[in-house]
């Protein structure tokens, strides 16, 4: 077992980027089939790590076996999902506008466009997903799928887990005969290593999951470079849950039970944790708060991912509870240790919430704040003032929701994923998933960090004008044997 993880030096960072750059020049041109084989081989090698990976991740993160096994399945699942996507080939969005030489008053040239890989990508491993959002996580695998080499900076909370997965990826590289610079793995505690990686001129994009302060600092750094580059940072979201009155008066018990489970899932350490509940005052809300308070009282504190996250939770929770008008509605009756996160729900009147931006900050852990509104109009005002979110949920009857069109209009502006009668935790990995939202949820709401669309972050469009067929990329050739959708003069054709 490796116990020390030396920080990358300026020399090793430079060497890693040089290697990545050289690897990029060949890797981007490898066939779709070859890239798909590589992604599938990564999944096989991760599975071959078997119990050693599970026990190491459990030891380093305090997460239970079932969660790690589930996360490993999600990780190998997205490797294979991207393998299928890349082999099929249509993700490049090939568009073919054939020439109209006799068009008047000027002839139209032949223009063909497709997405190409952006170049070497730096990925910061996430603390809260040691497998699915770290070394072979969604950022790494979608970048590799796009044809970009990746340099991972391991998260210091799980260096050994990260190292094991890095070896698995290296084995897949060897098995598939790819250049070693396609994937590299560096350690670095303190901000120096991460900042040097983002500033390096050969880095072309960054993937990050973590705090708002960290993501924003790296985003600003990337924008201050002589050549600014995109930073896809997933940072901070409190995932509002709106409880409409009619439904709440009928379903307060069921709604409270499902929200309690969602708030406490994984000790609240999910970016989709429901940190804010909005409802209109009345008997339904009173009964809901009583049930939710009881559920939370029965919930046990859980050991958090690392001491820093536990300390941060305690600090942010104390800060939220110290705000004017905030009342505790229920908290775990167990004592817990300083490494544990104690489940707690509190409430505040909407008028106090609106006046106090501190109450809208993410408290990363098993906490949720209920905002009591005097009317649906006031609830709309609160929703209007909210910052960008990954998700927004609405619990209500169909007719009740259709009467709230202005609220639904606001929510579309605020969040990347809207949910009816469901909690925000549990992110399906599929082509139609949107995991991203307006700032501060992410730095670029146009993209998703989960699902096949994640590949788009690490690509850029290039148009090829008047190219003879022999000089075009395969995807744009007339003779393209791939069965892909192509746009001919504004009409989509399956070729
Ligand atoms: P973090 O502090 O943002 O760190 C994540 C990674 O980014 C680490 O590798 C860290 O480097 C690096 N980093 C952070 N700030 C940097 C900077 N200014 N310059 C260069 N590198 C920087 O996140 P964390 O350690 O995972 O957790 C801390 C807090 O972040 C949590 O308590 C929680 O509030 C929040 N968080 C939110 C989410 C979410 O999904 N919303 C997920 C995880 C964490 P070092 O290792 O050197 O520090």
Main β-sheet description: 7 strands, mixed
What's the CATH first level of the largest domain?
Alpha Beta
CATH architecture annotation name of the largest domain: 3-Layer(aba) Sandwich
Beta-strand proportion: 15-25%
Output the strand order for the largest sheet: 11-13-14-9-8-15-16
> CATH superfamily of the largest domain, called what?
Aldehyde Dehydrogenase, Chain A, domain 1
The total number of structural domains is: 2
Number of helices: 14
Helical amount: 40-55%
The stretches of 5 or more residues where confidence is low (pLDDT under 50) are none
Whole-angstrom Rg: 24 Å
CATH topology of the largest domain: Aldehyde Dehydrogenase, Chain A, domain 1
Number of strands: 19
Secondary-structure content class: alpha/beta
Average pLDDT, all residues: 95
Q: Hetero groups bound?
A: NADP nicotinamide-adenine-dinucleotide phosphate
């Amino acid at each position: 077992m490796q116990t020390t993880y030396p920080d990358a030096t300026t020399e090793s960072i430079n060497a890693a980027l040089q290697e990545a750059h050289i690897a990029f020049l060949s890797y981007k041109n490898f066939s779709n089939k070859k890239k798909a084989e590589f992604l599938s081989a990564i999944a096989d090698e991760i599975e071959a790590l078997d119990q050693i990976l599970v026990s190491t991740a459990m030891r380093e993160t305090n997460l239970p076996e079932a969660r790690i096994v589930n996360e490993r399945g999600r990780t190998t699942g997205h490797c294979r999902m991207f393998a299928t996507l890349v082999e099929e080939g249509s993700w490049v969005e090939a568009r073919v506008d054939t020439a109209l030489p006799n068009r008047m008053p000027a002839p139209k040239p032949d223009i063909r466009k497709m997405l190409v890989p952006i170049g070497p990508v730096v990925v910061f491993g996430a603390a809260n997903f040691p497998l699915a959002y770290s070394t072979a996580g969604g950022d790494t695998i979608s970048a590799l799928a796009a044809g970009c080499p990746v340099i991972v900076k391991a998260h210091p909370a799980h260096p050994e887990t990260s190292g094991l997965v890095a070896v698995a990826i290296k084995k897949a590289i060897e098995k598939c005969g790819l250049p070693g610079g396609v994937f590299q793995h560096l350690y670095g505690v303190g901000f120096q290593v991460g900042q040097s990686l983002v500033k390096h001129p050969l880095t072309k994009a960054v993937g990050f999951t973590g705090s708002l302060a960290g993501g924003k600092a790296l985003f600003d750094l990337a924008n201050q470079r002589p050549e600014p580059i995109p930073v896809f940072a997933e940072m901070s979201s409190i995932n509002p849950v709106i409880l409409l009155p009619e439904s709440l008066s009928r379903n307060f018990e069921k709604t409270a039970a499902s929200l309690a489970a969602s708030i406490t899932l994984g000790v609240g350490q999910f970016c989709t944790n429901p940190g804010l509940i909005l409802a209109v005052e009345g008997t339904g809300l009173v009964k809901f708060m009583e049930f939710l308070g009881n559920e939370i009282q029965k919930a046990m504190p859980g050991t958090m991912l690392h001491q820093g996250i536990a300390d941060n939770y305690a600090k942010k929770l104390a800060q939220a509870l110290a705000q004017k008008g905030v009342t505790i509605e229920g908290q775990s009756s167990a004592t817990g240790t300083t490494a544990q996160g104690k489940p707690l729900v509190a409430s505040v009147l909407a008028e106090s919430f609106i006046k106090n931006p501190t109450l809208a900050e993410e408290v990363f852990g098993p906490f949720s704040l209920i905002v009591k509104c005097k009317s649906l109009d006031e609830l709309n005002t609160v929703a209007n003032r909210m910052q960008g979110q990954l998700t927004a949920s609405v619990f209500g009857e169909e007719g009740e929701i259709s009467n709230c069109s202005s609220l639904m209009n606001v929510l579309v502006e605020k969040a990347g994923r809207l949910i009816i009668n469901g909690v925000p935790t549990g992110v399906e990995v599929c082509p139609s998933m949107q995991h991203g939202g307006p700032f501060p949820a992410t730095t670029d709401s146009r993209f998703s960090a989960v699902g096949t669309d994640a590949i788009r972050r690490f690509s850029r469009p290039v148009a090829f004008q008047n190219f003879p067929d022999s000089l075009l990329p395969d995807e744009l050739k007339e003779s393209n044997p791939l069965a892909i959708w192509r746009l001919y003069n504004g009409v989509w054709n399956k070729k």
